[in-house]
Structure formats: structure tokens, C-alpha cells
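Write out this protein's structure.
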Amino acid sequence: MAKLLKKEEDKSYLLIFVVVSFILVGVTAWVIVNETIGRRPWKEYQRKFYRLEQEKIKQNYEKERATFESPDIQKKYGEARNNLERAREDFSKPSIQDEYRKLSEEQKALNGELEVLKFQAIVARNEGMEKEYLFGKTQNEQVRHEIEELEKRGKDFTGKIKDMEDRIASIKARLKALTHDIDKYTEELNAYTVGLERYKAQLKTFERVRPGLQVYQTYMEDVNTVDRCMSCHVGVNKTECVSTEQPYASHPDQKLYLGNHPPERFGCVLCHEGQASATSGVKKAHGEVEYWLTPIYRGKSAQGSCMRCHHEGKEVKGGEFLWKGRRLFEELGCYGCHDTAGFGEDKHRMIGPSLRHIKNKVGAGWITAWIKDPKGFRTTTLMPDFRLTEEEAQSIAAYLWQHTDEKKIADEMPSFNEEQLAQGDFLFEQIGCMACHSYQEDAERGFAPNLARIGQKVNYGYLVEWIMNPKSKEPLTRMPSFRLTQEKASLIAGYLINKTSAGDAKEGLTDAVWLEDKEKSHAGEALIKRYGCFGCHEIKGMEGFGKIGTELSAIGSKQVNLFDFGLLEKKILGEAGLRHFTENVGKARQSWLRAKLHNPRQFDEGKYKKPEDRLKMPDFRLKDEEIESLVVMLTGLREEKLPEKYIARLTEKERSIVEGKRLIGKYHCIGCHQLDLDRLHLEGDIEVAGMVKLEEDAGIYFQLWEDNEKFGHKAGETVLIENHQILDRKVATGGDIAPEIIEYHVENEGLVPEEARVFAPPLLHGEGKKVQPEWLFEFLKEPFDLRPWLDIKMPTFSLPDEEATGLARFFAEIENEAYPFEYIIETKKEYLAAKEAMSPGYLLAAKKLFESKDVNCILCHVKGEKMPEGDKTGWAPDLMLAKRRLKPSWIKRWLLDPQLIQPGTKMPKFFREGEFQDYIPGTPEEQAEAMKDYLMNLWE
């Protein structure tokens, strides 16, 4: 036993202890390195950012120094320094120094006396208030005398204070004059070194107090989120960018994004997503790790987050790509198959045309070809391709053909001679069809269907009835009535069919018996139900059917494992750089949506499916940019509810403007009317509003419609603005048809563009300041020929009351005018009685001027049943409407100077200084006031 113990004692454990010690030291070193570097990469980012920031300041300093040391600046700096020295020498002269000292002492003494006077005035006022209270209690005459004495003292004090303040102001002005040259040249001298001194001070501060390394975080308690993004992106809210490389770059367009969404309140996570609390790695912080449900949004993708807070329909600046997707989603009618919150709420609109009259509307030889390949007939159509076989297309056509409202229409088109076709052409352009339609086959998609091949599609009799009264065929159509006679509608229909019927599809039809085949109709019914045609079209026998597609209201937060990738998961995810969707669920979701929009039925490839189980989404043949905008929009549709403090709620006024813009878009008012002015942003932070009159290589001739003191020009002036002066240009919306009308009158009648502008539909800029909302509502409901000289008439849209109200309110609200009611005092008896009392014969004098040869308003204006002489093109609106149509304040502004409101108008400026004194003595403003009152009380 002793032998064994001795043997054990002889063993050495040194090697084990050394190895274990090395392992312990290594593990400790690893822990320290991992803790300080590996788990805190933000420290290195911050260090590098501060190095870049310091380098940026040094660069700016060197740049300023180089500029300052340049010969030109040194020369100017030397001149300013010499001027300053001379100014100081002049100021140091004994006489000036003596005057300056005496004035300074006098100012100091007067300031002391002024303080005493002000105190005494306050005491007197307080005593007076006390006496007034006492007099109210006692009605004592002695007290009243005391009050009068105190009032006199108060007035004395006020006079003395005023005199003393004037004396002090005079002394200050003289002191300032004495030091004027010193102040002037000192300021001039400092201007050369201000940048240099600023960057020098920044460098000293930076070297003396280096920024500490720390975690920057925003705790958003109400969404239970800690946002530490700025720990790495420390320069994101810096005004000056130190690098374009991330994470050192500043946020683009800071004023727009961070100005409205300060990081200390919104963090970064609300817009960009990611795992905002993570700081131990880039991928972790960006949420680009397995199973993280909200990975980072970059670039345009981040616009999808705008919908989290901005979901009341107002387009927000900076979210243009998202709103392009929203508009496209609406235009394509995606909500016809897919329930989607916020879409399809307009009960006065269908996505596609009604098919209840299809048998009377189109030829038998056209319908099948259209159903099978809509874009083969019209490339710009919104109708998608359902990839139907000939047999399927015939079956659907048979059902529609047999389920139509029977109504006999005379389909025989009479023969039109060349003169009649020319009349039809003239009428087509005269009434303004080109504002919405085009018949150029290669034209881009416009607001309304392209008519390039309409003659191959529509029956003549139906087209005549449609042109006369579209809503008799489709009550929900946006096409208005132009109040045409049957004769004019026939001429237009004949012209269109003759112009566009080349290669008539009817000629290829040999046998259409199958259209009446009951079995085909039965098969067609099943196909229509399968593909959900009733989601876009009104179809007889299928009223009230539900939507066939998946709801999309929360598609942006739908779990990726619920998307059917079919056998293409590896291919689609591989194109996004992923091996499995769990690596980045955001990318995986977007990749699936992109693939679905590009080729909706590709996920059936390689799989056996029964016909009824196959995918049925049609192909819209979208462009890549359209697909991307839809992907951004769809990923923004999420199942969440943010706290109310983050939601951008609109005011009643904003909501009215949003609704008005929607209605303007719905009815394409901008096809005829210009709603805004061209706006140019010029050097010197100057913005001018008006119209571009002529474009030259060197610049543009621009006519101002608003006074601009900063620019030094008034409304009505046309100015040449050179290209280098223009920093940004915003083209006015609307008036698409105006250039063609102006060009026609210039070429055919020899008018200048200024004169020809009057034949285009009126500009609606400032309409809310001009017309009374009640009149506008009635006019929108029942339009009439307000301007007799216009060929293009305001058509009848048969607007529902709420839509006419929405438009009337829009024009008032956007101009900050009262809505819905405005008190028109000019029509009230007490107002007129007061005017007559001040100036007997007030309205009679205005009437005499109105009818005088000097003004003679009815020479141009319609007055009820009384029409002016001469050509209608020289007529002006009916003055009998003024009292109900126009706002009094606008009438007065218009009468004083029409060119200030509408440069180029034919209306002359009548009221000038010294004119019409025999009728209405006074200023032009007083004369315009009297004429305005007369017009507001004008009767037959």
C-alpha cells in the first residue's frame, strides 16, 4: 500500500495544468474579443464614421482655405481690410469720438429717465383703475375729479414717453451712422472668413471632445419596440453626408422623410422593418435571418410601409412608386376577384362594361376572338388573357349571346358620302372625344378605350344609341352624354366605323350556329363561374355572385409556407439568392408575388391536376416596372393595427380634397380642363407660376399668372427665363386637348395662341374663388352651354348627388373658400339701402355706366334672352347668371384688372384712375364696387 502511495506521489501533473491554463487564457481572450468586437460591430462603424466626419471637416476646411488664399479673394479681402482700417481711422478722430461719447452718455441718461417715466405712468394707471372701482361703488364727484386728473397725468406721461423714445431713437440712428462704415466693412471682411472659421472651430471641438461610442436607441413603448438602428447608422440624420457607403450615408431627402418622421419618435423600424433591437451583426439587425418575419425593406420597397400609417387615400410625397401600384391595382380591377380592404368602395362604377347587351352591341364574328385573345385585338386593353382554348371561348360567347337583354336595334348602316364622313370627323373632334379616346393604333393606353378598330367590333345601330345616351346602355359607365341629336350621333358613328373597319372580323365568320347551342351555353356558364367574369362585368343570370379569388387585405403578412410554389420553389427562391424561404421570408414573399404577376399559372408546371383544380388567374402581360410597383403595394397590405398616434388622420378639408381628386381622376376632367399652372423653381429660391408660351434652345418665354415680388415681375408679364436659371420644372396637370384646339385655330383662322386659347375648355385654376358652390353643384348635375363660342361643350355626366357635392366642395376647399354656404350680402335690402343712403342713385349710376357707349357690356356679353351682335366666337358669358354663379369678391377683382386673373383674356381693363367720373365719381375700386353690386342685382 505504501508502495502504491509513493508511486502516486511521484506522478507529475504539470503538463495538464499548463494545458488547462492555456485553454483558460484562450477562452478568456476569446470571450473578451467576442464581447468587445464580435458582439459589438457598431463600435467599429461609429469609429469609422467619426473618422470620416473628421476627414470631411478637414476637406471642407482645406477647400475654404484654398478659396480664401486664391489671388482674387485675397485682393478683395485686402481691399475690405484697408476700407475697415480707414473707417476705424475716421472713427478715431477726436471730434467723432467726442460726439460718440456724448451721445452714448446722453442715451444712457435718457434710458434711465424713460424707465422712471414708464414706472410713474404705470402707477398713475393703477391709481386710476382703483379710483374707477371706487367711483362705481360711491358715485362720488370728488372721486370723478380725481379720475379726470389721473387721466390727464396719464396722457402727459404718454406724451413724455413718446418724446423721449423719439429722442432715443434719433440718438441710436446717429450712433449707428457714426459706426456705419466700421460695421459694414467688418461684416464684409467676416464674410470671407466665416466658412474657414466655422470649420476650424469644428475641428478644434472634434479634437478636444471626441464623440463617445454608445448605443443609440429609441424606445417606442406603445408598439413595444426598441430601435437601435442609429447605433450603426449614426449619420443617418446628419445634414452633411460624409459618405455614400452604408452605414455612413445620410438619409436621402431628409426634409421629406426625417422631417415628417423624426427618428426619436418613429425610429427606423416602422418604415424599414428589420430586427431593430439587434446590434451584434448586420444580418441580425436587418432581420435577414431564419424565421424572422419582417426583414429589412430597402429603397423603393420601403414605400410599402407608407400604407401602415397613410391609409386614407391621400398620396404622400416620397411614396410615388407605391401609389403607382395602388392606381394600377385599381385600374386593373384586381378587387373584382380579390376582396381587398380600401378598394372597390365606389358603388357608382363597374370595372368592365356590362354584357347584358352584347348581342346587340357586337358582331358575332368578333366576340370569340376577343374572349380568346383581348390584347390581340387591342394591345392597350386592361382585359387580361385567360389562356382559353377556341372551344372554351366559344362556350363563353354562347352563354353571353343567349343571356342578353333582347332589344331590336336597326343595325343596317346607311351609305355615307365624303361630305358626311368629313362632318362626322369634324364632330368627333369638335365635341372633345379626343380628350379621352384615341384612334391611333400604336397609341399608349389612355383613359378610355382605343377606337382604332372600333368598326370591326361594334354594330352601327348600337354605336349610335351609345353616343346619344351611354347611360341608357350602362348606368354605371363614366362616358358622359354630349346631348347630341340622332343625326349628329349617326354621322360620328358612320365616320368611326368607316375609318376603323379595315380587316373587318365579320368577314372571317363562316358559321355562328354554335352561338345558339344550348350545350355550349351550359359549358360557358361553368367557365364563367370558374373564372369569375361577373367580378368585372354585369352578366345576366349571375347577379350577386361572390368573388372567386383569395382575399388580399393582409397578403403582405401572409406566412410564406402558405404560398404555393408548386415545383418551382428552388428556381424562384434561387433567383432571389435564397436556398429556403426561411432564410429571408420578405424576399421569398416578394419573389413569389413577382413570379405570380409575371406568369400567374406557372406553378401548375410539372404537376397533374384536374381541370377544375388548375390555377385560373389570367395574365395581364404587365411590364417589369408595373410588376415591381404592384409587389411594393401588395407587401404593404398587412394584418396589423398600429396605435392611433402613428396614423396620419386627414382633416375634413384634406378628406374633401382627396375625394375631389379621386373624382377628377374617375371622370378624367383633366382631359379637357387644366387644373393648375406651370411652376418653375429658379435660382435664389424663387418659384414662379404661370404658363409656358414658347420654348427656345436658350430658355422659355413664361407668362406669369401671379405677382412675384421676389422675381420682380407682375401677373400678365411674359418673361424669357434662361435654362440655367431653372432648377426644377413642374408641368401643369390637365388641358390635354387644349394644344390641338389652339393649333387648329392658329393654322386655320390665323389667330395667335393667346387669342386661340379662348376656344379651349376653361382653365379651372382658382375656380373655387370664382364660383358659388351651390351654382357649381347644379351646373355639374345639369350642364348647359355657358360659353356660346366654344365648340366643346361640358357634357352631362349624370353625377350622383354625393359626387357633384364632392367636386363642388373640392374646388372651394382647395382655394380655402367657405363651404357649403357663403353669405352674399350684396343682394340684401339693408346693404343696398345703406349704399343708396351714402350715395343716392347708387345702382342707377352703375346701370348707366353698364349701358354706356364707354363700357357697353352687352356688346360682348349675353344678357338673358338678349344676344350680342356678330359672330358667336366673340360672345362672352351670360351676365344674368352672375348673381347666382360668381362670387362678389371675384367680380370686383376681375373688373379691376382681368389680366391679373386670366392673362390673355379678351376682356379689357375699363377702370383706370380718372375714368368715368361723370357716371360714378371716385377711385377705380369704388367704381368696380358699384358695378359689382349692380351685377349681383341684375334682372331682366
